[in-house]
Specification:
Distance between the termini of chain B: 57 Å
Low-confidence stretches of chain A: none
Mean pLDDT of chain B: 91
Number of strands of chain A: 15
Largest sheet of chain A: 7 strands, mixed
Oligomer: heterodimer
Low-confidence stretches of chain B: none
CATH topology of the largest domain in chain A: Rossmann fold
Structural class of chain A: alpha/beta
Helix content of chain A: 10-25%
Number of helices of chain A: 8
CATH superfamily of the largest domain in chain A: Nucleotide-binding domain of ferredoxin-NADP reductase (FNR) module
Mean pLDDT of chain A: 95
Number of domains of chain B: 1
Largest sheet of chain B: 8 strands, mixed
Strand order of the largest sheet of chain A: 10-9-8-7-11-12-15
Radius of gyration of chain B: 23 Å
Strand order of the largest sheet of chain B: 3-2-6-7-8-9-1-10
Largest interface: A-B, 42 and 54 residues
Number of strands of chain B: 12
Distance between the termini of chain A: 37 Å
Radius of gyration of chain A: 18 Å
């Protein structure tokens, strides 16, 4: 059987581990089958199921850009059983990968527009792959702005890349919840910083990812700025098992987050039953 | 003309013995689950088949086992380099040829509905396909319907042949078995007497008579929309689900409930990834690691069950309900929750003002 079995993970090996924050680690992995690694392609926003055999599987966004052919990158916050075990793994350890799964951000639709990224905490991971992809063809887009917040400076992921993102043409607005010694950027919650920035909705697309409470208030903020629902994209999370639209648990109405999502715009979400 | 044979009541055991030599035969029979529990099980000589009563469980187990192995994994260590480990995966599946004898039309229809989910994409479930393709269903024309049954209200009927490969018709002194396809015909070889013209006529008369029965009436028209309009009416759902104990028996006995969980088990260097039946009636079903639960109370969970069967599923699959009206959830609910009431109530008392 095997090649067409969507439940069978590919074996992969961890090549690099980056400690992002106290509870978030980034794993860079390569598929053990060199040919499959070479042929692997995906779109920004698509996810993968990572297996620790004997513990289980969980879903994570592939946060490296599709142009990166050397490894697949996943950032993992330690919250439950599988993530706990993923955090204990080291370079050289084997895991399972089922990817790519789900839909992607509409990159085509973003061409020629200003792009506003709004991220909180680990919510930066799905935006990273899109941000890096857009920066590769920087001239195709208008302003690229990132509002990124976390509880404290130590809770921001990918800090070591911020300078690179800036130098490639992204404007970064960084914020933390309260004053910290040595912190010279903004202080305040992401929704507050958004209204301080008050970007115009004209020809702009907003891409939002973060904790549910942040998304909720960012959405209010964007509506106040007169963004329309179809201009606002987010990527959802739900408890998943199969990841292929069969097992039944990640539904919102008749849609499955694993195959119809995880990327939705708010126009789509408004037409779905509020079962979040 | 379709092939029909007659099996006399005194010949049934011999016929089943004969069949069980050729296929893995599943029949409804008394089970150890308690007095009076009838469920589908492997036929072995000596098993007493019960064809005159409805079964507690549907035969969905034949294709969706309660627990099945998706993957076996093994870590291999090498004596030369004890630090090096290599994982080996095995996802092989062995499907045997199965005949489910004595399913009801509602149960046979349920297989067609599950086919949509498991086989029609976007991904194909290879385990399901392997079992499904090697399974034949012999459905018994049903005259045992009780007041919990409502197959006629959801697109089926007590003599419906949708999803069946063979039809079993109870007649005077035995049963007439009719092949509805070529593969089924070959199974009938040497099984009973070729039916006489009079016997054929009698069988057809029984089928007509039972076809004319109307099992249950509920207003499912517009349930897709009515459910959505009622979605946020928490008073309605509170009233409907108030008594629910979240025991999950409705999903356990349901022929169309297919949700599953996937878990790993490991001992030493070897383990398995298992798929097991799950239930959307359980708190843990949607509980996320963060502690967030999109369906935290029985209200949201029961609402999702009704919605899935009468709104989400038909929206996705050409208007078909994910319910065959078998009545088991009504019959076995310990607190007498009746899904028919939940569905027909969707349209009541909705404020028509804009």
């Amino acid at each position: 059987m095997s090649v067409l079995n969507p439940y069978r993970p590919e074996l992969a090996t961890i090549r690099e581990v980056i400690q992002e924050t106290a509870s978030i680690r980034t794993l860079r992995v390569t598929l053990d089958d060199a040919e499959k690694m070479r042929g692997f392609s995906f779109q920004p926003g698509q996810v993968g199921q990572l297996s620790v055999f004997g513990v289980g599987e969980s879903t994570f966004v592939i946060n490296s850009p599709p142009s990166c052919r050397d490894y697949l990158q996943f950032s993992i916050m330690r919250v439950g059983e599988v993530t706990q075990r993923l955090h204990q793994l080291n370079v050289g350890d084997q895991i399972g990968v089922r990817a790519p799964l789900g839909n992607a951000f509409p990159v085509e639709e973003m061409r020629g527009k200003h792009i506003l990224f709004i991220a909180g905490g680990i919510g930066m991971a799905p935006l990273r792959t899109l941000l890096l992809t857009l920066l590769e063809e920087r001239e195709r887009y208008g302003e690229i702005t990132l509002i990124y917040g976390a509880r404290s400076p130590g809770d921001l992921c990918y800090r070591y890349e911020f300078e690179d993102w800036k130098s490639r043409g992204a404007e970064l607005v960084l914020t933390v919840d309260q004053e910290f010694p040595g912190w010279t950027e903004r202080v305040g919650f992401v929704p507050t910083v958004l209204s301080e920035e008050s970007p115009s909705p004209h020809n702009r697309i907003a891409v939002v990812c973060g904790p549910p409470i942040m998304i909720k208030f960012v959405l209010f903020g964007l509506k106040e700025l007169e963004f329309e629902d179809h201009q606002i994209f987010t990527t959802l999370e739900k408890r998943m098992k199969c990841g292929i639209g069969i097992c039944g648990r990640c539904n919102i109405g008749s849609q499955y987050v694993c195959v119809d999502g995880p990327v939705f715009n708010f126009d789509q979400l408004r037409h779905m039953v509020p079962d979040l | 003309m379709s092939k029909m044979i007659f099996i006399g009541s005194d010949q049934l055991t011999a016929a089943l013995d004969h069949l069980s030599e050729r296929v893995e035969l599943w029949v409804p029979a008394g089970a150890s689950g308690g007095p009076g529990v009838i469920r589908f099980q492997r036929y072995r000589p000596g098993v007493e088949v019960v064809l005159d009563r409805l079964t507690n469980l549907s035969p969905k187990e034949a294709v969706q086992p309660q627990v099945e192995t998706l993957l076996r994994f093994r870590t291999v260590k090498s004596a030369d380099d004890p630090a090096a480990e290599q994982l080996l995966l095995d996802d092989g599946i062995e499907a045997r040829r199965v005949l489910v004898f004595g399913a009801r039309p509602c149960d046979a229809r349920a297989f067609l509905l599950s086919d949509e989910v498991f086989l029609k994409g976007p991904y194909e479930d290879v385990y399901y396909r392997a079992r499904r393709e090697s399974t034949l269903l012999a459905a018994l024309v049903c005259r045992e319907g009780d007041d919990a049954c409502f197959c006629s209200a959801v697109g089926g009927g007590p003599a419906d042949t949708a999803g069946s490969d063979l039809r079993i018709v109870p007649v005077e002194g035995g049963v007439v078995v009719e092949a509805l396809g070529e593969e089924a015909e070959s199974l009938l070889e040497g099984l009973g007497e070729v039916v006489s013209d009079a016997g054929r006529e009698e069988a057809l008369r029984v089928v007509d008579e039972i076809s004319a029965l109307c099992m249950g009436e509920i207003d499912t028209s517009a349930s897709v929309q009515a459910f959505k309009s009622r979605f946020e009416d928490r008073d309605y759902w509170r009233e409907v689900a108030e008594r629910c104990l979240s025991c999950g028996v409705c999903t356990f006995v349901c022929p169309t409930c297919y949700c599953f969980t996937i878990t790993d088990e490991k001992r030493g260097l070897e383990g398995e990834r298992l798929r097991s039946w799950d239930s959307c009636m359980f708190y843990q079903y949607t509980l996320e690691a963060s502690g967030h639960n999109p369906r935290p109370t029985k209200l949201e969970r029961y609402r999702n069950r009704v919605g899935h069967k009468f709104s989400y599923f038909p929206e996705k699959y050409d208007g078909r309900f994910s319910c065959t009206g078998c009545g088991r959830c009504v019959r076995f609910c310990p607190v007498s929750i009746d899904i028919r009431r939940a569905v027909s109530g969707l349209k009541e008392n909705i404020c028509e003002c804009p």
